[in-house]
Structure formats: structure tokens, C-alpha cells
Amino acid sequence: MLNIPSLALISVLVGFLGSLTGLGGASILIPLLVFFGIPVKQAIASAMIAIIATSSGSAASYVRERITNIKVAMYLEMFTITGAIAGATITTIIAPVYLYFFFAAFLLTSFLRTSRVNHGFTPAGSQDRFSRWLGLSGSYFDQASKKLVSYRVNNTVLGGLGMLVAGLAAGMLGIGAGAFKVTVMENILHMPPKVSSTTSNFIIGMTALAGVSVFLFSGLLNLTLMAPMAIGTAIGAIVGGRVLNRFGDSTLRVLFFAVVVLLIVQMVYKGVTSI
Amino acid sequence: MNRQSPAKGGPKLENAISYVLIAGVLISLFLEIAGIVLFYNSYGQLAISQEQSVFIQGHDFFSFIYNEFSQHTRTLPVMLMTAGVVVLMLTPYVRVILSVFYFARQKNIKYVVITLFVLTILTISLALH
Fold it and tell me: Of A141, A247, B35, B40, which is least surrounded by CB within 10 A?
């Protein structure tokens, strides 16, 4: 039986996984809550708080260790927040069923990339003008490989559009769309895996805040769900934030793809059942 | 710890954001735990409740905060849990405000515009819903 202490314990694991993969963890929590008999709308609304806790709890470490790229995050947030607000508005017009399939299809493209770069991250040789103008490059010290990893962000215009779509999906489907964001950052912006997942983590907290404010009006925010989720995910995320840099990129990738496979199945299932 | 040699001013923002985030999360954690402990003391159980008293609702984010803490209609455990949620929600908001001021002090116009844009859209969306 689900109660406050058991939900807090489950949330520790969710926060830990969420902080390592750059996913908010809401997509893991929502089906779990529904399984235990919590009304689905209440689960979606209250899980937003878990995204903020995961994001803030782990980002504190990632930002201090200079893994998160703040400038990239700020630039991309312009697009995600615009997309999120547009998405929330569009939901009233278009059936989200198409978006479930689109989202699943886009996530599949992340597998194409891995088969090519399983030898590790290779930085882009050159940088386009706009990305250079924005000053979007960086480096961090990778504790797993004991190396300084330098990178240049590329295709910022296309990446911004990708984030607009991520924001749309987040606004329409009521999720953090962290998997989508990580995929855009790695595949389009050519950012290293750890920088992608930590920068995504940083951004989703703010997108979720915009989401919570929508739900505040609806009266679906249950304190006996939010309090234990906030405690559990925050603790899990603080721990995750401290250990991420010690993991190798390949371990994190396996973890990420395991969760992405789950998400694809979930999206296709939702799409099929809502036809 | 492996710290890179900081570029002029840049890392200060990272340290400040890091402190804001961890402070927000820890204060929220403290309030939530205190709220749950008092909730148990008052009601003698820790089940997920569907009673109206454990739901929070407001017209928009800012008026919600004002109403919640100016009218003392809630019990102390519920108020503490609400305060924990509010602190957590304010954490990402405060870090955007902090970034605007930081880039302004750096006279980095590009990023002042970018962060101001984010802050404006966020504020509008919080105030409208």
C-alpha cells in the first residue's frame, strides 16, 4: 500500500536515476502513482514538483563542478519556455495522439547516434558563426577518464528549434521531455553526454515550474503526494549529482537508453490506446 | 576537486547559482519533513490523503503565495508542507533573476537580453495562470 514514507523511498531511486540521465523522473513516477490508484491527472500535476526537486538537487553539484553549461542552458530556455506555453495552448486545439508517435519516433533517432559514437565523444572541429557569436563552447574535467573534455556547440539555430519542439511536447503532454532535450543536445548541438544530461537537468526545473503554475489553477496539487516526492527525489538527486562525474559515459548511456526504451514503449502505448 | 582556472567573472555565477539551488532544496526538505512529522502527530497516520484540506489551489502563482500566507486558514502541518513546495518552486525562478543581474553586472548585453526574455516569459506565465 502506498503511503507517505513508501512514496518518499521510491522517489529517492527516481531522483537518483533522473539526475544521472537528465530526465526529470516524472515519466517514471506518473505510471507508478497511477498503478497505486492515484487519479492520473493528480499524478501528472503533483509529479511536476518531483522534476523541480530532481533538477535543483542535482544541478547544485553539476553547476559547481562546471559540467552544466549555463550559457547554453539560458539560450535554450528561451525556446523551451516559449514552446511550453505554446504547447499548453495548442493542446486545446490538436489531439495529442500524433505527438505521442512523433515523440517516440524522435527518441528512436538517439539510437542511430550511439552506434556511431560508442568509442566516446568526439568534439566538433569547427563551429558555425552564430554559435561562436553566442560564445557557446566549454570544457569540464571528466573524473571517470581523468581528462579535460573540451567541446564547441554547433547548429544553435537548429538546436533552438529542437528545443521549441521539446517545449511543445512538454507543454502538450505534461512531461519534462528531458529525453528529447538530451537527444537534441547530443545529436544536433554536438555536446558531450555528461554536459547534455546535466544541462537538460538544469533546464527542466524551469520548464516544470511553468507547468506547475498551470496546474495550480486546476486544484490537482496534492500535498501528501508532493511532500514525500519532493523529499525523496531531492535526496536521490543530491546523491546522483555527487556521483555522476565518476561514471563513464558508456555506463550513463546504457542507463539513459534503458529509460528511453521504457519511454518509447510508454509513448507508443499511450498513442495506441488514445486512438 | 578539479577546478578549472576561471574565466573572468564566469564561475562566480556558477557558485552563486549552485548556492541558490542547494539552499532552496535544503530549506524545502526541512519544511517538508517538519510538515510530515507534525502531520503524523496531528492525524496519527501517514496515508496519501484525498481530503480537500491537503490540496493547494490558487488563481496564479503570485496571488497564491500571498493568499496562502496572509490568511491563516490552514493547519500548521499543511502550511509547512505548502511552504516547502513554494520554496522549491521559487528556486528555479530566483536563479533566473540572479542570472539577469549577474550578466548585467558583467555588461554582457547578449545574455542580459536572453535571460531577461526568459524571466519575462516565465513571469507572465506564472502571473497569468
Answer: B40
- Check if the beta carbon of residue A166 is closer than 8 Å to that of residue A84: no
Per-residue model confidence as pLDDT tens digits over A20-37: 887 767 777 877 887 788
For chain A, say whether B121 makes contact (Cβ under 8 Å). yes
Size of interface A-B (CB pairs under 8 A): 177
**Residues ≥6 apart with Cβ < 8 Å to A262:** A27, A28
**Domain limits of chain B?**
15-128
List pLDDT tens digits, range A104-129.
776 676 665 554 444 456 666 678 88
Cα separation, A63 vs A56, in Å, equals 10
Q: What is the mean pLDDT of residues A174-179?
A: 72
C-alpha to C-alpha distance for A98 and A103, rounded to whole angstroms: 9
Q: What is the pLDDT of residue A96?
A: 59
Q: Is B61 left (phi over 0), alpha (psi -120 to 50) or beta?
A: alpha
Q: Which of residues 35-74 of B touch A (CB under 8 A)?
A: 35-36, 39, 46-50, 54-61, 64
